[in-house]
Amino acid sequence: MSENLLTDTAFNVNETLERIGLSAKAAGREASDIRLMAVTKTVHPDKINEAIEAGCDLLGENRVQELLEKYESYDKRAEIHFIGRLQTNKVKYIIDKVSMIESVDSLKLAEEIEKRCAKIGKTMDILLEVNIAEEESKGGFYADEIVGVSEKIKDFSHLRLRGLMTIGRFGAEIEETRQYFEKMRHLLVDIKSKNIDNIYINILSMGMSADYELAVSEGATIVRIGRGLFGARK
Ligand SMILES: *Cc1c(COP(=O)(O)O)cnc(C)c1O
């Protein structure tokens, strides 16, 4: 049969996985150590489900309202991580729908997640978001706060710190971005060495459509891709 039955989304998923594999190999890493996340903002659930059908088993959600509207339509084979700014009063709406919150950017938010998880008897995996380029406009902890915060998180019995997340500076040159990713890798080593219960600290979520191959060479274990899978956003 000569007809090509792949949808655009399925094609993009395959190609992205292939490029992740090549970058991993070039860096002496295993492709299986890197997870592809499909970032769903503004994308119709049908397209999201095409990505899941093509083998992507992880979704990234930015907005609480959008997650709630689309949640029922999603193919439930995929896990969902929350990756956007999260107000404390919205935590309760998503707590039972996501398996990880990657965008923990304050202790106040960590406390609220702890409180809500305690209520339903759940342990939530979290990442600390790092404002690695120290941009005024961006949320997240500064790099020099991360070790202290990770030590405080230990007191929260319903949170499990798994690692770090960052969003590179938009418009940065490749060498600048590479240095941010490298700093993130070192920071992960720092928090691992400071936490006795550190076996779970092994996730570095970094790299988006424009720079995920670089992120893989610098140690990313989750790459978060939107436009590269679904095309430009309106
Ligand atoms: C939108 C978004 C992405 C994906 O960006 P693309 O450039 O579309 O790949 C990744 N991470 C976060 C936190 C985002 O908001």
Kindly report the average pLDDT value.
96
The unreliable regions are none
Percent range for β-strand residues: 15-25%
> Quick one: overall form?
globular
Walk me through the structure.
It is a single chain. With 234 residues, the protein is an alpha/beta fold. It has a single domain, classed as Alanine racemase (TIM Barrel), CATH 3.20.20. The protein is built from nine helices and eight strands. It is globular. Bound molecules: pyridoxal-5'-phosphate.
State the gist of this model:
With 234 residues, the chain is of the alpha/beta class. Helix content is 39%, strand content 17%.
Note the main attributes of this structure:
234 residues, 9 helices, binds pyridoxal-5'-phosphate, TIM Barrel, eight-stranded parallel β-sheet, alpha/beta
Topology:
Layout: H1 8-26, E1 35-39, H2 45-53, E2 58-61, H3 64-70, E3 79-82, H4 91-94, E4 100-104, H5 107-120, E5 124-130, H6 146-153, E6 159-166, H7 174-194, E7 203-205, H8 212-217, E8 222-225, H9 227-230
Helix pairs in contact: 6-7
The structure holds pyridoxal-5'-phosphate.
Pyridoxal-5'-phosphate is lined by residues 39, 41, 62, 83, 167, 208-210, 224-228.
